[in-house]
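ESCALATION

Customer reports they have been waiting on this structure for their group meeting. Please prioritize. Original submission:
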Amino acid sequence: MEEIVGEIADEHDTAEEEIVKLDEDVFRISSRLHIEDLAKLIHVDLDSNEEGIDTVGGLLASRLGRVAIPGSTITIEGWKLTAETVAGRRNRVGSLLVEKLEQLDNSDD
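Update from on-call: job pushed to the front of the queue and completed.
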């Protein structure tokens, strides 16, 4: 069944948190997190209807134009999203590291 519809959680699966704050502007998120929840977390403009996908994993693959593997990276409005781990029988990306990019200081001090 999972080959057709994807991973199915059951009583033997352990639930993982969808968002884990690692530092001030660093998060580990589940690839199953809804993109609108990501948008709220990092204060960016993402719309699942506009993007045509629902999950962060789907967003990553869509922006890359291919299936993501660990180490795959995209940037969204000053935030870097990096595929971290694989999960499940199909070895899909399970989590992503989300980090705020440093702003360049253009002052002439």
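Sent to customer with the following note: The first helix runs from residue 2 to 5.
Escalation resolved.
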